[in-house]
Amino acid sequence: MSADTESFIHIPLDLGQSQIRLVRDLTGSDGDISCKIEVFDWKECPPYQAVSYTWGPPSPLRSITLNGKNFKVRDNLFNFLQHTACGRIKLETFADWYYIDQLCIDQMSNLEKNHQVHLMDRIFGEAECVLVWLGAATPETDAGMDFLNQTCVALEANERRSFEGRDLKEIRSVEIWFHAHDEMGASVAEIFHRSYWTRQWVLQEFLLARNIILICGERVIVWDNLSYILILLYWLNALLRQETWKRDRVLGPARDMLYQKHTRIVGVMSVHTSLYHWDSRSLIWLLKRYSHLVCEDPRDRVYGMLGLVQDNEHVEVAYDKPPAIVFWEALAAIEFGTWVAESAAKEAIIKLAANMGVKGDEWPQVGQHALERFTYLFGEHDPRYIFSEAGREHIKVTSVQ
Length: 401
Known about the structure:
Oligomer: single chain
Number of strands: 9
Strand order of the largest sheet: 6-3-7-8-9
Order of helices and strands: EEEEEHEHHHEHHHHEEHHHHHHHHHH
Shape: globular
Number of helices: 18
Largest sheet: 5 strands, mixed
Radius of gyration: 23 Å
């Protein structure tokens, strides 16, 4: 087998150490992408940028060259690599190395995936920058990204990061700006209705990032400017008369993630933002809040949260376990408190169970602690009833009452 057709095989990591792989030297043309990959001990890791993106459908697969050998990646990642290697994306370079999970983790090894998932909070939290790839551009997203950057220039984003101290005349000028560009609302909305904002895994990648650059096609916007846009939309939500710029309409599925990120950095924006207040990282709160997000592997409904969860609610990552057993282990780890009402906690657990294929007949395989947590919420009911369709309806009715 020649070098250009031989398949790349990952050299195993030392799972007893904190090791990761990084890639660099992205080069190529439209159909020929190549890069190099190396293993690093965490303490010797060079500065790197982490890429946050959606994997997309499993086909078609595209070929790249990794350390001189053939490697298959999904289409959305190929588009990012292509844009980067060909120099189409004009952005400040924070580092020469990249962390890209599809390349840097041996996806055929459950042991390695277990090991790497435990490091995700550090990988994304300590990256020099997280590059958020929203996918290929359309004319609408190009126009939307251009408008966002133009808005920051026109409204002096570098001078004013909040509405504190603004007089009515200044606030009125902001309202006039958005009203004059009413036709841009749909273009901006397309950016925030991309599938990226609906995926489970990107949640912790986005929230833990120190710096963020949003990329859609060849257009970019830095987090400072995007955060400024959020402030404008938040404060002007009641002032803007036209529906085009209403906050929920524009931000859509991205709304919660964007405001959570904003409040983690600058604090609660006002007494009216309790909806976006960053909780104490309790697992039940996160499960309740983000139950709408989707993932390819049902186990990731739990594992995709672990970088955000407080230390005393640790769940061991094990991709060789059935999703239903992972559910019970998560239930055992939950510390119920005052952040989520009992009815809301029940609904969150019921929904998680349905999403992870729990039938209730797994309980003989789970520990006493999981059963105690179940009893705390559902009393002496049989798990097989609670996690049945009839049981789910029963919980809905009693929650309403």
